[in-house]
Design goal:
The complex is a heterotrimer.
Chain A lengths: L1 E5 L2 E3 L22 E3 L1 H17 L2 E7 L4 H11 L3 E5 L9 H13 L5 E5 L10 H9 L3 E11 L4 E8 L2 E8 L2 E5 L11 H7 L4 E4 L18 E7 L8 E3 L3 H14 L4
Parallel strand pairs in A: 1-4, 1-6, 4-5, 5-11, 6-10, 7-10
Antiparallel strand pairs in A: 2-3, 7-8, 8-9
Chain B lengths: L6 H18 L3 H7 L4 H9 L18 H14 L1 H20 L2 H12 L5 E4 L15 E4 L8 E11 L6 E7 L12 E7 L5 E6 L10 E11 L4 E2 L5 H37 L1 E2 L2 E2 L4 H29 L5 H27 L1 H4 L5 H9 L8 H13 L3
Chain C lengths: L5 E5 L9 H17 L3 E7 L3 H7 L5 E6 L8 H16 L3 E5 L2 H14 L2 E11 L3 E7 L4 E7 L4 E5 L14 E5 L11 E7 L12 E5 L9 H11 L2 E4 L1 H5 L20 E5 L5 H7 L4 E6 L6 H4 L2 E4 L2 H16 L1
Parallel strand pairs in C: 1-2, 1-4, 2-3, 3-9, 4-8, 5-8, 11-12, 11-13, 13-14, 14-15
Antiparallel strand pairs in C: 5-6, 6-7
Helix pairs in contact in C: 3-4, 5-9
Classes of the chains: A alpha/beta, B alpha+beta, C alpha/beta.
Chain lengths: 263, 388, 326
Amino acid sequence: MRIVVLVKPVPDTASGGERLRPDDWRLDRAAIPAVVNANDEYALEAALKLAEAHGGEVVLVSMAGPGAPETMRKALAMGAASGTLVTDEQLGGSDTLSTARVLAGALADMEYDLVLAGADSSDGGAGVVPAGIATLLGLPYLSYAAKIEPDPAARTVRVHRISPTGYEVLEAPLPALIVATQALGEPRYPSLKGIMAARSKTLETKTLVDVAVGAGPVGGAAATSRVVGSEAPSPRAATRVIREPADEAARLVVEFLAERRII
Amino acid sequence: MTYRLSEDQAALRDAIRILADERIAPRAAEIDRTAEFPWDVKELLASHDVLSLPFPEEYGGLGGDLLTVCLAVEQISRVCATSGLILAVQELASLPLLLAGTDEQKARWFPDLAAGRLLIAFALTEAEAGSDVAAARTRARRDGDADGADWILNGSKRFISQGSVADLIAVFAVTADGDDVPRHERLTCFIVEKDMPGFSVERVEHKMGIRGSPTAELGFRDVRIPDANRVGAVGEGFSIAMRTLDRSRPGIAAQAVGIAQGALEVAAAYASDRKQFGKPIAEFQMIQAMLADMDAQTEAARQLLYKAATEIDAGASDASRWSAMCKLVAGDTAMRVTTDAVQVLGGYGYIDEFPVERMMRDAKITQIYEGTQQIQRLVIARALTAHR
Amino acid sequence: MPGDAIWVHGELAADGSLAKISTEVATLARTVGETAGRQVVGVVVGADPAAAAAELARFVPRVLALTEPATADHAAGTIVGQRLAGLIEREQPAFLLTGAGPEGRDVAGVVSALTGWGVLVNAVGVTWDDGPVVQMSVFGGKLTTTSRLTEERGIVTVRPNVVTAEPAAAPGSVEAGNIFGELDLPLVRIVDRVEAAGVAAPIEEARIIVAGGRGVGGPDGFKVVNDLAEALGGAVGATRAAVDSGWIPYAQQIGQTGKIVKPALYLALGISGAIQHKVGMQTAGTIVAINRDPDAPIAEFADVVVIGDLFEVAPALLAALRARAG
């Protein structure tokens, strides 16, 4: 099986240092180190497990700025075989539609059985890009997967799609695009072997010229929306600390909730 | 080195830090208390491919350079100096083969060493030959004149790290000692396998620190060694030993930097929590001064180490100078930082409820083995004044 | 007037009723439409849209109900998206509002790709100033941004619990709409539908959430979490640690890789409040935490923190709540 995983480098939320650029209110991606979007790691783990079970390889595709190769190395260290990075100055500030067009363009001349994407990204995660890519490429779209079961011989795939009341079992022909969720299983730590092997794996870079982009303009200049302002939300009032013994503490909490008309 | 670790070096360092914090740190106090070799930690390192770092890829290793190995030793030593030594010794003792072994020898032993199935020790020191390496008395004589004849080994080695748990021992023995033989051409290196008849572990020392790492006295009584186990040319032993130490001293420096870092972190955390006179002691200037000096000195030792490893990997002609410097500075730093860490913790630093007293005991050996600090200074001074 | 209407997509739940989030988005759309002086139209697409359309009509003056049999046993997102895009092409509205949950996002993504319309996502507020002005909470709540579309048409996805659903003074009308043309995009067949035992309404819709973290210690520990949720009439949530340890299903995970929630009350038991979880719940109206560690991050942003053993405090709280009710 050949599985493409879409990965996005995002600012590391654990660092707490995310901010907007003061001049154009775009996300300042240079401010703090980037990591692979957490949801994409789940997608990658699912892909690696599928490749291990059915034979085959996992390749990465990403649209990102120039610092991306460092971040993609970790994904390669987890076990992906190679990666393609679409990077171009014009792409800074791309909106979701532009991102979908560019990624669809990159996928257009690739061969694959499955494309896996994370449910959304932590840096403003819209969760609409995978649906857009599937639409542009005419791929069957299966979202919010808790389980993925391909049948390579029959050229179909079954997916458990999380629903509000449980799940639906979906079936589609291959190739298909699947949105992965955390329910698929924890991503592996890269092994030392994987880390060392990542050094020699190919990460090719493509510019907009190399990628036939699906109908319509792309890039920051073509953005269909822009940020016009930002403000810190009003701070919460100071925390009230209760250290009394359990029964008294419980009484105080009930009083507090009643005051706030919650109960 | 471009003054930053590459992304895979940083990734590797972080991966080993996590492994050390989660799986090795909880065992450190017990390893010290029982003074038993931690086979479980050795298995852990083997199964996570840590022990394969120093070995070439074609023999199943990860082909890590010296800096990469040092990063690993540092992270492990941060939580347990004994455990850090497992990797450091595996690297040290394999260096003679890496530097001078034949392809057949490498193919014979490296796969098992890389996988951690076999452990190897480095036996150079003797009771009467510590700093004075060439004064060794363990001898190997040829059994007959035929080309490729066996060697018969007699003598003993002292203070051999992991000598009692190793499967292979790289032994340096006198093979020629006439007056016409220059001092540095008297030794030859051999690989002794622990099952060879005549090889024995005579004793294991009770030590101040790195107590989980067995330091052994080894006896050789008419041990028959095939010529195929000879490493390098006859008489090349001293050169192999010196080149080995040039590449292995940074490993000890890494252990020392790791110990210092571990002690610093405990002291800083303690100072932030411990309240006296109404506030955390970390707010008192004398403590701040101590912590600041500890941090700056540890960082300086670390940077010198990374630079030295990078220079040695690049084949610098003054490798000996780099190697001696980084080990000198790191060892002294570890001793100073751990001593200050005990001081910061005060009474609590002296008891085994906190790890700093162990770290201080562990640090001392880094000023002694793989060349005492005094020998390091000689090496540096000679390099400095040689051409003048 | 053609060319400037505000449309609202009404999501169908599995049983054919209107999803709760759509009642909120519809209320929001009506309010914005009134300010803007624009028509507001609801659109429902489904195999049997009548019930949902009637419900949606309680919130907006006019609803188009499209009968699309294919959604009976095929994944809806792509189908609904295509029908909406087709309708948009014919009727030429200006804006489309959808929910920001899984169903709404799927539809928004498909419509955006087919129409070339941009999407403003995860709105926590929508106002009007010659076009929709959208507030988004970013960086784990550290910042609220205000954004606009650059063109005169586009899509906005709206988070749950941003407005309280409020029916209009008088119900609107429902018209049956026609579907035109074939569905071009591949259909994904629904082979089976499985109800998970005891799964309540989506946690994003809950007014009160009681959540357990690592401090709960195991699946047994979740009993007191469940009891408290029941006593408060709320839903049960969890941190990633609890889910990854297998103590509770992923559907109830709150945080960066789980759900983002905005309940009136978030009661956190044994949760440290690390950033990855914080981003999922920090805009809750009231946050009460029970934790044994006074230095846990949650103690800094909760409204009330009880320092103590949750296995003592939580049962005491449960008893106090029951006493009050009884």
